[in-house]
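User: Could you walk me through two proteins back to back? I'd like the raw sequence and the structure tokens for each, with a short line separating them so I can tell where one ends and the next begins.

Assistant: Of course. Protein one, sequence then structure:
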Amino acid sequence: MADDSQGEAGRSARQEYERRRANDEERIRQRWGRFGGVAVALSDERQSTRAWSVGAAGEAIVGARLDGIPSDQLRVLHDRRIPGSRANIDHVVVTPSGVWVVDAKRYRGRPELKAEGGILRARVESLRVGGRDQTKLVTGVQRQVEHVRAVVADVPVTGVLCFVEADWPLIGGSFVVQGIHVLWPRKPAERLSSTMGDVDVAAVTNALTAHFPSATRAQ
């Protein structure tokens, strides 16, 4: 069972969803007065509000996979706040071989690597999901990786985008784009179960826990 220092996957996203839903309902009630209850019941949930619920569910699915890795030589931290920012890191896994920063996304469509150039001009890589350019997600993980690297010094840090419920092919499918691994929930468990390496897991975990507090601590 996860203790308080480990954090709870998706909890801050669920809290934000509940806050937004309550605000949406209150606005509807104020607008419709005594018919507010009926209006709330008949109103569709705003997409921008529902997105937080979808995201929280994706984080929970990935978090459960990470927590279930059969190894007592790794530590998993969930839902960590980045100091000085409104952003958070979904999951951080400390292993004997290094640190993994895992960002969970619950997107539909097939994740694909698009590469242009490489012979007469510089190679440019982008991420497509369902045919749409989602390279901004790669940039977000790269920033998270840099925050973690600043804390753990010479320990290797690897960034991961983990897509839940995406349209993955039956064979293959995972790839690396701009240094970030793109894969599905079961794949990280396969890679993180290795116990090879000489990283001081306890010391690195303590440093990360101190620098990136739980995003759901009392405010």
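----
Protein two, same layout:
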Amino acid sequence: MKRLSNLLSTLKPEYDVVVVGSGYGGSIAASRMARCHQSVCLLEKGKEFLPGEFPSSVTDAAREMHMSKGKTQLGTENGLFDFVVGKEISVLKGCGLGGTSLINANVSIEADSRVFDDTKWPEALRQDRQGLDFGIARARDMLKPNPYPEGQNGYKVLAKTEGMRTSAKAMQEEFKMADINVNFKEGVNHVGVHQKSCNNCGDCVSGCNHTAKNTTQVNYLPDAKNHGAEIFTEVGVRYIEKQGEDWLVHFDVLGAGREKFDASSLFVRAKKVFVSAGALGSTEILLRSVQKGLSASDMLGQRFTGNGDVLGFGYNCDVPVRGIGKMVKEGVLGDVGPCITSVIDMRKREKLEEGMTLEEGSVPAAIGKVVLSSIVHFTRIFGKDTDRKLSDFFKEKWRELHSMVRGPYYGAVNNTQVYLVMAHDDSSGKMSLKHDRIDISWKGVGKQKIFNQVGEKLHLATKALGGSYVKNPAFTKLMDYDLVTVHPLGGCVMGEDAETGAVDHKGQVYSGKQGTDLHEGLYVMDGAIIPRSVGTNPLLTISGLAERNCQLIAKEMSCQLDYAFPEMAEKSEEEPTTGIQFTEKMCGFFSAEEKEDYQKAYAAGEKANSPFDFILTIQSDDIDRFVEEQAHEAGMIGTVNAPALSAEPLTISGGKFNLFITDPEDAERKKMDYRMQMHSREGKSYYFRGYKDIHDDKGFDVWEDTTVLYISVYDGKDEQGTLLGKGMLKIKPADFAKQMTTMKAIHPKNTLAGIGAVAKFGKLFAGSVWETYVV
């Protein structure tokens, strides 16, 4: 599978459309706007993972964990598993190219139609069931949900599925095989991506290393790419600003070490912006935008819901369950199965709010041993045995001992059913900014009546299997009945007007605190717009709404969306390359008065207090090509501070860096060349040209030669514009020390390849210095 993301150094200064986030809403927006022949840029905070790069051990999983609670931040900011701790409810969400689709359980279930009768939805949506049905059909066509094929093509009946049948029968409730976004037939899919068939490893929620899971990474995102969208990862959007007729999307570059230099945010310009960073992310971005001056409804941050999520366990049942993921050999089918395969559907209640969806699940192999040690401990404290016969007691203890001695694939843990329930809470949580981070508050949420009813149903499901019912450890009296959700919704909810919602029926943002005036070109498109719980897995509802809304927006643009899939041949696989990047800071002075002599311009700029500095990240996606080609060219992205040009930092684009190229006018001299466009918030463009002069004169002056940059600035987008001035920049020793810590490999195949890439760059640099000053 080829990478979808581009080097950030290729980011253009402006696009027709900028999409923030790559989950269901964001990827649909990117796909559909690209099909409308718009220039589309998608910005994703997380990294791009290819099959084989998702965590497969506890150590790998720990590296990809990020936890935030107020000021406290633990782990990598854009780790795959993003855990936000609230006071009464906490949220686990995914962070990567594909969003939460990377780590969810793939279940595509339509919400009960009565959900959309609620007056919390705008009337235009309530009256447009046909449009919603159309959107859901479009989403199904792309995500390809289907049930686990029991008894077909070697796919055996799974133990956990049989356990659910047993529970459903005892509970006298409806059992169903769930439609799941998983591929069970190998081949090239409808957008040209080669997918393997599911191997039943059970690792869906730690990332599919087998290319069988139908995440947005294998359908909507490649479709967007096929239609011209440009995708960038490790980009953390901060806020959005209105500038004239355009929008500026301000962002930080993650993983490049820019924070070590206290670097400014960058921006990209667009006519339309789709905020699709998830319920928490989209709300956080817009709340921060309001702090920066954006006008919006007071409903922003309101009506948060955890979708009635409850996690529980049927521990040490009398029958095997095989609910711990397990790596399997190529060509072999495991016995765990996809994360979720079946549902006990209890939604057909007279009162909608009393309905719920109960599903089984599997724990990924990467944390199987952690679950082993944890669940035994929690059972001692919170477990409630449903079978108290003396003979059963001894069997249970034997199975516990078996697990402790042989591991999670044996005994009590092997006989543990994992439950996920979705129900209807009152959707009255609130989100706000605290310490510049999203903060969730929802007093007494876990004490709502529905959660006791969920507990009773889970107890019955476990009793049918002869196990011990174990609550989520957070949902106890000791923890004040705190909840954990994997399905956060709301925060930028739909409403009839600005007094009842933050966005209208198609996700367009209200521009005031009252009335129905809208921000032209600003939309929210993800689970943040849903104003209530949906009582089941929300991905199909989110996707259906996004498809519906994109069609409405396309019509407003006079675009007739074409949903056809052209004949797609499998894309040839290119040998993956390892790149290199580092971040450099240089400071100096610039003069608009002196345009002939660099030294004089530096002195004049210093005297006039006209500083000039940049923080640039230099990137090459192929270290071998960078070393072998004579131009030694790489891309650049970053910011420039130059008060003589703009009061605010300028963002650069089209940056090109050349290392140690021979001066055509003097074979004894070499140059480091810097070329880039600079863009101000006000829409003004400038062209920057700089060079470092590497030559051997009297004395060993390698430090000065390699750390002094002679600069010229032109009006416009190239050197054909008017010369505005000159200057000089220098590297401070302290900044050079920081620069060395930012040197890293890009997309290394393994640790050795990463070390090799850095070594090749060092050898090229040192060799050229030696050749110039010693030989």
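The radius of gyration is 28 Å.

Let me know if you want the two compared in more detail.
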